[in-house]
Amino acid sequence: MPFKSESQRRLFWAKVNRGEISKAKAEEWERETPKKKLPERIHKKKASALTKEETIEQIQGKLAKSKREVLLDQIDRAFERGSMR
């Protein structure tokens, strides 16, 4: 299996030096890696952004509770904690 990045290559050789993997395995990976320049790091793909409609739906869902319901929830939590008697 070829290396995908320079950081992966360095990690492999560091593991060889620590005795965690064999030198033969690292050399095998080196042989299978193309001679082209590898990127320093491979980044994970970022999650796609929400569409405008999805964002609006989320905001509307958060605003669905009336102020009265929010206040009643806060009072209930205060009584549960014992801070109001």
Task: Give the helices and strands as they follow along the chain.
Answer: HHHH
Low-confidence segments, given as residue ranges, are none
Oligomeric state: single chain
| Strand count | 0
Which structural class matches the secondary elements?
Answer: mainly alpha
| Rg, nearest Å | 28 Å
How many domains comprise the coordinates? 2
- Summarize the biggest pleated sheet: none
Helices, strands, pairings?
Layout: H1 6-18, H2 23-32, H3 52-62, H4 67-81
Question: Which features would summarize this protein structure in a list?
Answer:
about 80 residues, mainly alpha, elongated
Structure description:
By secondary structure, the chain is mainly α. The protein has helices at 6-18, 23-32, 52-62, 67-81. It folds into 2 domains: 1-42, no CATH class; 52-81, no CATH class. The protein starts with 5 loop residues before the first helix and ends with a helix.
